[in-house]
Amino acid sequence: MATIRFNDINASQVWARLHQHQRSTRHVHMRELFDADPGRFERFSLRLDGLLLDYSKNRITDRTLELLFELAEVADLKGQMDAMRGGERINVSENRAVLHTALRLPADASLLVDGVDVVPEVHATLARMAAFSGDVRAGDWRGHAGQKITDVVNLGIGGSDLGPLLACEALAPWHDGPRVHYVSNVDPAHLARTLEGLDAASTLFIVCSKSFTTPETLLNAHAARRWFLARAPEPALARHFVAVSTNTCAAGAFGIPPDNLFGFWDWVGGRYSLWSAVGLSLMLAVGEANFRELLAGAHAMDTHFFEAPFTRNMPVLMALIGVWYNTFYGAHTHAIMPYDHGLRRLPAHIQQLDMESNGKRVGRYGERLDFDTGPVIWGEEGVNSQHAFFQLLHQGTRLVPSDFIVPMQSRYDDAQHRVLVANAFAQTEALMRGKTVAEAMAELTGVSGEALDMLAPQKTFPGNQPSNTLALSALTPHTLGMLLALYEHKVFVQGAVWGLNSFDQWGVEYGKQLARAIAPELEQGVDVGEHDSSTHGLIGFYRETHAQS
Ligand SMILES: O=P(O)(O)OC[C@H]1O[C@](O)(CO)[C@@H](O)[C@@H]1O
Fold it and tell me: Which residues participate directly in catalysis (predicted)?
């Protein structure tokens, strides 16, 4: 039996002091904190390039932050940041370095990994991506029948889909290349509906898979190839299929010629891979210069993260405040509210980024943890979210810390955009301030007696619901890069404090393993193996419906 080791961060004195501090401050309403300190916003907000982080609408005082910074010291956060930045193999279970930040380093930088400078390799790949996407966008790379490529279909899932899909939608105003479509689900409807209306002669497929072993992506890739070969000869494949992967052998075995393969490295985690060749679909849509601006924005955030003192460090502050609610207030979720239609996929991307990184119950060395770790991430674009679930945020019984992400400028109707921004600001104010029963009653003019007693409590808002606001001067490739890198580092800091390996994802394997066993059992006449009665029953129901059809 393996030795059970305990991560003892929760045995530290500061951990106990944070619990004590929570008990002694939990009744303080944020209204009081604002009323007592007219300079609260100035003190609890930060600016970097075109990004403003307002963290003043949180249940924090200077003392809270002091204790949280002490917790970061006890967890040796700085040491862990240096280890990541320096290329140490901090992904211990997979014995890999974690260097998505190296993908954002300028060409004149250098970083040795196992004695090899990775920066020239990174830039060599970027140059290949730029040459290829430049050729496709200019019409120098044409389809087998000489047609310009008008549509690109990215076949990938998880980190090989969510990041580029988010960025592609967010940067829609910069699209001047071919249309880009993202197909991820193994549900055949996803590919079929995407291919409707596409012309094989002007369609380019990107098979995007770090491992090149993901069944969903391979099934879609084979299905796409069948669709293509029903409309074009075999030799044409090389003009219409490229791949992005670390697994050059498997991509080659699929039939991707070496010149059509864009590689990356095992020190890039899938959910951190947008910045690598996984971003090829995005570069095809917005061009090399905008893609490099995205990288530059992320690099600006990397430099801030690695060099700013914790007290003025955006990712560290957002992370520690998140730990405060998650671990010391028992808030189990964190909501992401992008007040921008272009950022509507941000919650989905951060769900993978955060929950696949920190959704763990054991520490990086297998230690058992007896405290809560990663929160459930959820969210929706604003203002749609207001008309869906804000009732619960305002008058429910749950503590839900949330991030409001709001660009200050729009490329469309400015007057209408002002209404969007006003709603975002109003929601954070209402969530913080609430409305007392006295204030509610004061508004119920002409109502009295039982009606007043019934209505007033229903029009009362407890408030004290925390939120961060990330205000972007405008949503651009640069600020998008900053924003996504900010969340990557926030997740890193939380994992570091909780003692997790934020860079493996063993938890995804068991379901896949069982799916591999069940898939053949859905065939008529195939013996069904050992399962519980429910799974047996479900398999039976599937076979029954297919027997009738
Ligand atoms: O890029 P790949 O190797 O196809 O993996 C896709 C996704 O599947 C996962 O491994 C989860 O199953 C993610 O971590 C990853 O982003």
Answer: 356, 387, 512
